[in-house]
Each structure stands twice: as C-alpha cells, then as structure tokens.
Amino acid sequence: MNSMQSTKAIPKQKFDKFKLLDTLVVTGLVIVSITIRILSATAFPQSVNEFDPWYLFYNALLIAQQGGNWYAVPPDVHAWFPWGFFIELGDTIGLPWLVALFSMPFYSHFGANAVYTVAIVSDIVLDALGVVAAFLAVDAITENRVGAYVAAAVIAVSPSLTYKNLLGGLPKTSWGATFVLFAIYFMTLAIKRKKPVYGIPAGVMIFLANVTWGGYTYIDLSLAIAAFLLVLLNKNDEITAKSLTLLAITSAFLTSLAPNNIGFMSGAAHGLSLLIIPLFLYLELYLRKVLPKEIVDSKNVIIGAFIVFIISLGILGLASIGKSPIPSRYYAIVDPFFQFSVPIDRTVAEYIPQPVSAMIQDFGISLFLSILGIYFILIKRQQLPGLWLLVLGVASIYGTSEQPYLFNYTAYVAAALAGVAVSEIVSKFMEKKIRLVPILLLAIVGVSLLADAGIAIEVSYEPPSLLNSATPYLVVNYAWTSALDWINHNTPHNAFIMSWWDYGYWIETVGNRSVIDENNTLNGTQIKLMAEMFLNNETFAANVLEKDFHLYPYGSPNYTIPVYIVAYDAATLYINSTGLTTWFIGYPSNFPGTFIGYTTSLGDIAKAMGAMTTIAGYPINEYINISAINSTVFDLETSGLPEAQQLAQIIANSEPMAWTPKAYHSLVVNMFIQGLQSLNEGPVAAPFSIPLSSAVSGVLTPSYLPRVNMLYFKPVYISLYPLGTVPAPGGEAEVFIVVLIYQFVEPYVVIPPTVVVNGTSS
Description:
Largest sheet: 8 strands, mixed
Strand content: 5-15%
Helix content: 55-70%
Distance between the termini: 94 Å
Structural class: alpha/beta
C-alpha cells in the first residue's frame, strides 16, 4: 500500500509538443543545410577547397604527427624560404587542433588520410551546429520559436555561407561565429534563469571561438561595448556581473593554455580585457549603492567621461612607444582610407570595400531584417546577450562593407538579428490578434529563403578550386593538380619553388616543397620581391636569387639547391580551316563567345599588370598601353558601326594584354611566350596585332612574336588542360589552362620539358 501511495505521489511529466516540434523543425533544417553543401560531392571528386584551408589542413597534419599535442608542433620549414615559420598559432591553431584530435583514433591506421577525411567532412558538423546555434540564441533572447526558426533557416540556405561551408572549406570565421552564438545562448540562460553557472559553458564557447577563428580582439571589444551600453541603459545587475565573471575566468583560463599570445597568461589582449569587463559592471553596481542619489542620476555621464579618458590615455601611451592599439585589419575598418596606404591590401579583393548591392546579394532579406532586429533589441531586449548581439551586428555589417572577408562571419550574426526582428513583429501583431501582417511577413521571408536555397544549390555545384584550377568556370580542370603532382614526385625534397603568393599554400601542402611566399601577408618584403622578379627581366631575377638567397643555377659550380618558378594563366589555340595553328596568350575576352583574336588574362599576367605593379610600386603605364586602349575604345564607340559597342567591350576587357616594350621583356611574359613556343604547335601571336576588319570577318592573321630563349630559366614541365572550344573566324579556337614550371639553370644548359596535355604526356 505504501508503495502504491509513493508511486501516486510522483507528478506526471507533461508532454511538451512544442519541444518535439522544435526538434523536428531544427533537425529538418540541419538536413537541408547539410544536403545543400554536400551536393558538390555528387558531381566532383572531393578535396580541401580554396587556398587557406589547405594550410589549415597542413597544420592539422603537423599536430596529428605530434599525437595531437599542439605545444609540440615544429616550425613549418616550407614557409617563407629560407627562414621557415612557426604555424600561425594565434589565428589558426584551434580548428586544425580540433581536426587533429578527432582524427587521432584513426591516425595510427590511416595516417594522413584520416586527417584529410576529418578536414573535409568537418563542415558537415559545422552545417548542423550553425543551424542549432542560431535557433537556440534567438529562441533564448526572444522566447519566440517563429523567429528562431527563421534564423536557423537563413543559416541553412544562405548562399554566402555556401561559398565557404562546402565540404573541405574549413571556414574558421564560420566556426568562430557559431561558437559566439552558443555563448550568447548560454549567457541568456544564465541571466534569465538567474543561474550564473551558465557562464562557464559560455566561456568554453568563447575559448573555442578565439582559438578557431582568432578574432579575439573583435569579440572582446564588442562585449566591452555591450557592457557599457548595459550600464548606460541602467540594466546592469548582479546576476549579469556574476555570469560574465564566470565567462571571463573560464575563457581566460582555457585560452591561456593555447600555445601563443591569445591567453591570459601569455598576453594581455584577451584574458585581461575580458576580466576588466565584469569588474566594470561590479564597479557600477558598487557606485550605485554608495553614491548620493543626485550623483547616481548622472553617473552614466561620469562613467562615460572616465572611460573616454582612460581609452584616450591608453591610445596616446601606445602611440608614444610606436605601437597601434588596433590590429591593422580592424584599423582599416575604422579608417577606410588606411588600406590604400598599404600596397598589398589594395590588391586583395577581400580587403576592398563593396557596394550595397553586393551586401544584399550576400545576405538577402536578412540584411534588412537585421536592421529591425538591432532596433528591437535596443528598445526591448536590453540584457547583455542581446546588446552584445546588437554590437556584433553593427560592427560586422559595417566591417563587411569595408572588408568582405568578414562576410561568412557576418552571415550568422545577421541571421540571428533577422530572427529577433521576425520574433518581435510576429509577437506584437499576434498580441493584437492581427494575423495578416505576420502571415504576409513570413510569406515574404519564405519566398526569399526559397530563392536563397536555389542560389545556394547552384553554388554547391562548384568544383573545389584545385580541381578547376581556380577558374570562374564550373568545369573540372586538372592543370594545377598535374603540375603539383609533378613537383611532388619529380623535384628533390630540398627544392625551392617560387610563384605568386596566391598559390603558396598549394605548392607548400600538395607539392610538399618550400615556397618563397604563402597565401598571407606576413612577409610583405618577400611578396614585393617576387613581384619585382616577375616584372623585370630574367637577369634581374637571377641576380636576386644569387645575391639575396645565395641560390645558384643548375650547372653552376656553386649549385646546391634546385630552384623552380611557377606561372599560371590561360592560352588559346586558334586552328583555321586549313589546319594551321596559332597560339594566343590568355583566353578570349568574350569567352565563351566567338573568338576574334583578342584575349585577356585570368591568372598571373593580369596579376602582373595590376597587383604586382601596385605592390612593387611600379607605374602601371610602364607595362600597359592604357592610352592606346582608351583611344581604340573611343574610336569604336563613336564609329556608328552596329557591332561597335560589343567590339569596344572586347577591347576594354583585353587591357592586361596591351603590353609595352617593358612588359614584353618581363620574366612573367617571357615565360608564357617561351613556354608556348616550346610546344612547337605553331607560332605565338602578338597581342593587339589583328586588324578589327579581319577579326570581324575572314581568317585571323596576327603578327607573330619572335623566338624567346631565356638563358637562366628553362621550361621543365608544361601542364595544358582544355577549358572549352569556341568558334572563330575561318576556324575555331580551343582554350587551355596552362601551368608552367621553369628551372633556374646555367646559360646554355639544355633540359627537355615534359608536356602534359589533358593528362597525357607528349
């Protein structure tokens, strides 16, 4: 009888159908997110994607080789020849470390393949976590699941995230943003449930955000501003201060264990700044208790003035010792004109401000809704997590407009703010029993998300960059894969490879050789030196190798290390109706339209005539005959010919090939002329040597370039893979991607080149 009474005393758990609904909806969105971003696996072989992720994979491999011990990673001897470089512990250590840890159970059996597999599929986990984090953060802040569903759906179908979150993308900023949203979720729970202990998991999330992304300055400054807003709005309380203290202590302690300067014990930037924020909140609470009422009423003004004074004093102090308190990347956001004073920054697309239209394309309807989300938080959700999301939103949206590399971080913040906006609008009108407005809003959002999903699916059918040779065309092209494979298997392990910095990680990781520069700006001096070598003649390049690097040509008595130089671009083979062939450097300016003899560049020639001249500090008009281009375009546009506009556009797009005599004598141009001539498949056409009259009708009859035979650099490998065939006057034209590998040799040393056309040696 007692047993029965005890059983009856236990209250029955009420079935929460909404929890089940949340689980089903979020799971469905997770599946959608994953499905969209693995579509490329059904069409193309999978590899690590883009450029930077190759280095992250390489770091993960180095850590795995040390048994997952991130303290024991040796210097990367392949980087920045001849010095080598420690892997970027402060910015990229976390994501490779996690990849290495999850590969450790399989590493003893599968070796590097285990690390490679985990690196590629880790983005599946990211797709799931991003959706869940957006839902939880918005649901916790607003307590409205409709807006939380919208935020999760935005993440699931976002085209801008799809660019980076495809398999093998290893997007460290996306990982950072996901962990920040989880931190906001746990902080909201701590404050609303009055349980500061939730600050501990929030601190763990900030630790993970800092070590995977490295944006600790951005995270800490935004949290400090949010705390300041909390005080100004008189919303500070003891629960918030306690929760933030636990967050700061947890994060500072864990990041202090990371092997570089982002932790409390190894540097002031992260740990101390986080601990100062809760101290500031406690100070405000103390002043509120001890100060007279008339002073308390004006305390915000006093605190604001004091903070401005301290910040000004700190900036002046740092300036007096020649140090900037703001990292250069963030300073460029604060001062948009700053980046134009840094030559390298002016040449990197992701550092160049973008128009509003590009922002709309990146973020869609969430960009507009996020502005409303900021407004609603400011007037209604004035707790620390909401204010932190507000500051993150303002900073990241503005920052992305100035430097687009932040876009796949901002997408998460914009999605969460959009979810807040939808939550508030739906709640407000439903309270007034006006259902039409919420229905219309959700319909508009739904249509927008369907459009985003369509774009994301299209973007997903894009081959990894290495497998389409970094072209803008969605076809497989193995020119670079073939060249890297040759470097790996046919050059000595101590070989030194030179190339433009865009390909440094590929050569270093896939080619497994030392490079002069990587895909980063850590050594601007060496990048500038490479630009100067490409833009000057071969004698200049040979002198640099001997005097600056003490490297000598193959065949010299002083020869010790084999030296190679790599260049990449396109080439067009024109075949007339009689079977005669002519090579054109570059690819048709109107590709895939009818080829009329005018080409442009998608590789190193365009970079030479733009980025390299900027970085080297050479006037562009010394290499490109801009006045001739402009006068030709003007004559066409004023000629009255029906096809004038189209021809003028083709000519204008051909600008990188309008070479001056100095350009013709540059190393990079000579590499392509000699490389194509060595194929013995026809002469090489001189750019801009075809009269428009013959280009529009008849057979293309250009002037031919004289034979180039460089003394110090000889082609040893030429990789040619077709990009497509297009019609041409009197015949057709086949476009190839070309990767050239030259070796530094003593004059008159003969090295027969290996030529690979579409995977077959000839």
